[in-house]
Write a structure and sequence with these properties.
Number of strands: 0
Strand content: under 5%
Distance between the termini: 63 Å
Order of helices and strands: HHHHH
Oligomer: single chain
Helix content: over 70%
Number of domains: 1
Shape: flat
Structural class: mainly alpha
Largest sheet: none
Length: about 160
């Protein structure tokens, strides 16, 4: 039994399916663009963190040289103890800045892994057990529905009502 006239229903369904397919393709392309952008941003952040670490190294070397010079001048009587303490504080500040930059570099590496979808136990080879839904199901599928402890808890809850 076949209709002679469907009133354009078949053509409409075809156009609707084509539009749905094209929409799904556009969504997929947009997701690819967003992922590429996120990975690019993460890489740029990592490059910035690496540059900050290098700048921190140079700042430490410069502060160390300045501190050594001020300390030597102080031993000759040309500088005060306050000058030495100020130079030492600048050296300590440079070291703190370097440590903070190093922490940002580690975070940058993890951001890159996260945006690439590689921040997982398996990829990082952490050596820890992961949750296996099928394994857990198989372990408890034959377990009793009610335990002795569960029955005691049920009795307590009934009394509280």
């Amino acid at each position: 039994n076949q209709r002679v006239y469907s009133g354009g229903n078949q053509a409409s369904l075809l156009r609707q399916s084509i539009a749905g397919r094209d929409g799904a393709r556009a969504d997929l392309a947009q997701a690819g663009v967003l992922i590429a952008e996120a990975v690019g941003n993460a890489w740029a952040g990592l490059a910035i963190a690496n540059a900050q670490v290098q700048a921190g190294d140079r700042q430490i070397r410069a502060s160390q040289t300045a501190f050594d010079g001020v300390r030597e001048e102080a031993s000759l009587g040309a500088r005060t103890t306050l000058d030495v303490l100020n130079a030492e504080q600048e050296l300590l500040d440079a070291r703190v800045t370097r440590i903070q930059a190093e922490a940002q570099r580690y975070l940058g590496v993890y951001r890159v892994l996260q945006t690439m979808g590689l921040l997982s136990v398996e990829h990082l080879k952490l050596g820890i057990p992961t949750y296996d839904p099928a394994g857990y199901y198989n372990a408890v599928k034959n377990a009793p529905v009610h335990s002795a402890q569960g029955k005691k808890l049920d009795r307590i809850l009934e009394k509280l009502k």
